[in-house]
Amino acid sequence: MAEYAVELRDVTKVFGDVVAVDHVSMAVRPGEFFAMLGPSGCGKTTSLRMIAGFERPTSGEIYIDGKPMGNTPPFRRNVNTVFQSYALFPHLTVEQNISFGLEMKGVPRDEIKRRVREVLELVRLPQMANRYPRQMSGGQQQRVALARALVNRPKVLLLDEPLGALDAKLRKEMQIELKNLQREVGITFIFVTHDQEEALTMSDRIAVFSKGRVLQIGTPLEIYERPANRFVADFIGETNFLDGVVKEVNGEMAVIEVNGRRFVGRAGEGVRPGVRASLSVRPEKLQLLDQPSGSPNCYEVTVSSIAYVGSDTRVIVRLGDQMIDVWEQNSISTLDPNYFFGPGEQAWLSFPPENGLILVD
Amino acid sequence: MSTDTPIVLLGEREAVRPRVREAAQRPTLGRFVLTLIALFTFAFLYVPIVVLVLFSFNSARTGAVWQGFTLQWYERLFNNPRILDAALNSLIVALVSTAASVVIGTLMAMAMERYRFRFQSVWDGLLYMPVIIPEIVMGISLLLFFAAIRLERGLITLIISHVAFCMPFVYLTMRARLADFDRSLEEAAQDLGADEWTTFRRITLPLLMPGIVSSALLAFTLSLDDFVISFFVTGVGSQTLPVYIWGQIRRGITPEINAISTVMLILSFVLVSLSHALQQRTSAR
Ligand SMILES: Nc1ncnc2c1ncn2[C@@H]1O[C@H](COP(=O)(O)OP(=O)(O)OP(=O)(O)O)[C@@H](O)[C@H]1O
Ligand SMILES: [Mg+2]
Description:
The structure holds two protein chains of two kinds. Chain A is an alpha+beta fold. Chain A has eight helices and 20 strands. In chain A, the strands form four sheets. A six-stranded mixed sheet of chain A has the order 6-7-8-3-9-10, sandwiched between helices. Chain A has a five-stranded mixed β-barrel with strand order 11-12-13-20-14. In chain A, helix 5 (168-185) links the parallel strand 7 (156-160) and strand 8. Chain A starts with 5 loop residues before the first strand and ends with a strand. The mean pLDDT of chain A is 91. Chain B has helices at 5-10, 12-25, 29-55, 72-77, 81-114, 120-128, 135-148, 155-179, 183-191, 196-225, 228-233, 241-249, 255-284. Chain B contains 13 helices and no strands. Classes of the chains: A alpha+beta, B mainly alpha. At the A-B interface, strand 6 and helix 2 of A face helix 9 and helix 10 of B. The complex binds adenosine-5'-triphosphate and magnesium ion (MG). Adenosine-5'-triphosphate (ATP) binds next to strand 2 and helix 1 of chain A.
């Protein structure tokens, strides 16, 4: 087995004067759940379609199981796709839809029957073999689409926002199911989504796309805790940005001056004294205190507003003319009505240096 | 208002309904005029046809007087070898030209829908131009063309001409169908290992079938009913039914003519209804 199930080497795709995919390189390991995450129009679908063989790269090469794909047509690639719109054949029953790929491979009739039955069990639709797609709900159609791809036991399964058409609750359920299913069958999944929470909860690794480029590839933890740049920090989760100028760099750590106040944080790539940069600190990594802490990052702020949202309390504070989000998790003690600061009150905002990240733009 | 209490007790629906009915029944001048115009329109459209159909069952040989019901004109029709010959010609021409129009029209529509090339809108316009070319112009030009290439008039010239005016209708229908066609279904088939030809056979063709059948029915009807163009390109012994009828009318309208016309009317009506029903059924999906 090759080292990588799928590899893109310096792949570019140009449509007319639009650069849809711009020098993308990434390598997906066998058995991995790999997400391509990014805002609308950033080239995720185009990348997936190039892997499937529906589009040819303008330059660069795609390898599947170690072999360069070149002009290999889709029907000779050992990958299967779950389309965003499902693309179930409307004139065929569920069983005929699922059998289609096996028939193309010339699998014997009785084996097809058996495998279709197995895969319908797997996606928990055993009673639906004789229905037509239009007689099923969106969630059921989604599972048929999944079954139709999985039954072929491809090396790699490509999924283009397969949960996009489902409502929030079903979507959550299917996320868990899909993840379990992937573990069970052990097939490499390449999963396109623009939903960062979905990517974080499901993936082994994530490639963050923006404007046709890959900005960062890493585990959910790496992407969230150590975003490579301002875009990634902003796109994944919530964060506060405080813009300023880097003053000092000491190994891993750096000092940034923001409106005359100095903060210490971890230094991102390219951080040198004198460059303009932003301090990124996530709302849940900030603390509000009634007295100064020992941290170098501790300043007096004014509480502007407070919102109780169940699992946590979201406070907006003002530091000079900058608004900062602070999320305090609600533990038992918060039942005490005097626990919180009220609007207009003074408080001390504090965070340990390792919770801040200094990023050049 | 206290006297209204019983109506209020009936609930809103019950109280409102009688009033609506009243309004619908009240005659006004506007309503009267509109009804009259509508009646005239329908009379104008259908009275001649109804008269024709009725007289095909009239036992009187001549004159516009009803003398009793008979089926003898229909009986004569089916025993008249010249009429049967003409009907057979019509059928052959319609079948062959429909088949050719459907194949050519569908393939042209696919090419135009799926590929991009130079002067595309010009080619597209040229393909459906025959729909708006006056029939008499087309008839004359075809006649001149066949004379120029020394093709003797007969079934062949009829078929070529009928393809020329039927194909654009197939083309237009199939263009509309293909515009709605979900290309990702074909990609899904290829993704599952089907090559281009298998994809066409197993996915594209079955999904286009309702459109193909309905445009075929339309082409068949057009071919069967055509007179003007056929008149120019028909030869001795290859007359189609409408051309034959025209020939007969010159000797006066007979009840047989009424009978053939009725048969053609019903046939066209059935074919067009079928075509329409197919369109409806697939667009409802
Ligand atoms: N066939 C095409 N012709 C021209 N431009 C295209 C084509 N396909 C994609 N593009 C352009 O390429 C860019 C990337 O498109 P792509 O579909 O890959 O985005 P995406 O990341 O999948 O977005 P979304 O989340 O909205 O699906 C877009 O600017 C799009 O307009
Ligand atoms: Mg997309």
